[in-house]
Structure formats: structure tokens, C-alpha cells
Amino acid sequence: MKIRNELKVSLVGAGPGSEDLITVRGLRVLQSADVVLYDALVSDGLLSLIDSDIPKIYVGKRCGKHSFTQDDINIMIVENAFRFGHVVRLKGGDPFVFGRALEEIEYVESFGIPVSVVPGVSSALAVPASQGMPMTLRGVSSSFWVMTATKRDGSFTEDLKFAAQSSATMVILMGVRKLKEIVDEVNKYRGSSTPIAVIQNGTKANESCEISSLGNVDNIIGVIDVTQAGIIVIGEVVAKHPTFFEEEVQRVLHSNM
Question: Of the residues 34, 39, 91, 135, which is catalytic?
């Protein structure tokens, strides 16, 4: 067994999906770990870059599958720090973008264990970019909102309503399972011709992107795998996707047949 290093915890952003989108610092810290606790969205390719002798413990939370509570994860981080030394808590995207990193930091530090954070490339920006969608564009969108669709009780966040009333690009995480309800809400404030994209497996080899408009979203709901995480982008910038007009024309023609 590897000799235990200094007792410490590193929270490392794994990036948006593809293993080569972790930062140089993130990879260096990851490869210095004595044990790695990783999330559901961390790719197998990235895990393969870690020495095979290093324990890799899955602590993901996925809808419909066995999940660890946040309290479970907090305890596991501390227990493994005392057992192995350097724990790398590997989190998809960036640790501070809907990652509950601060809760983990506060818990770990309460045991006197030092914690450092390595920022990651957030999927909220990188995944739309991988499809050629700018978040801002002169004369089209001067800002963007990144949000989750719902609160813990399942109700829509106020941010969803406020963003829908603006001209900003909307980037919605963890909302694929409620796509129809989200579109119905946004459509109260934006026109039915407003473009929308749903991107799944972002930046990976099997990345998929479905393009439509709010008024025609029913046409893509049937082809989206709601068991997989995805990113919803709503706004005029989606029309910059190279297939937007082609796909819209095909859907209109099909609906009129």
C-alpha cells in the first residue's frame, strides 16, 4: 500500500465531460491523490489517467439510481483522509457551480483538515461552446443566466421566471426531466419562435444536440433520453447553431404533411 501523504483534501473540478478538458493544475493534483472520490459525471477516460493502485470510490448522485446523500459524502471524505492522507474529491464541471462544495469544505475543515480548491471548466459554458453557441453576442444577447430549473421541493425557481422575462441567454442545468414544463413557463414571457437546444453527454464522443423552438419542442422531447443529464439553452444565440434553420424547416414540413 502506498505510504500515506500529508492529511489534506483537494476539491478538483473535472471539467464538462471529456477527460482532456480538466485543467493542467487539476490533473496534476488528481495524479498526486492517495484516494479519489468521484461524481457520476466524471468520465472513465479521466479516471484511467490515475494510477491503478489508487483507490477510486464512486460517490455520485443520479436520479433513479442508488445515491449517496451529502452527509454520506462528507463523512466518506473525512474517513478516507484519515485512512489514506490526500483525498481528491473529483467533481464534474466546477466545484462551486451547483456542486455543494462549500458544504464539504466546512465539514472537512471542522476536523482540522486543510482543504484546497482547483477550479474546473464549467459545463454551463463549455458544453454550449462545443456546439458553437456563444453565451453573449453583440446585438443579440448581452448577458446570460445559469440556473437550475427547480428548487428542492420541485417547484420552479424564481430565477427561471425572471430570466424568461429578460433578453438574456438562459442556461438551465438539471432540467431535462422537466423540459416540457420549463418550456411552458418560459413561453409565457418569450415568443414561441425562440430557439432552444438540449445538449447531452456534452464534450464527449457521444455528445448529442437537439435544436428546436419553444413552439415546436414536442418534436424533440421524444428523442431525448431523460435518464441522462443535459443542458438546456434558450435564447436567440441558439439560432447560431449551424443546423438550426435546417432542422426547423424540416420539422415544419413534416408537421404539414
Answer: 39
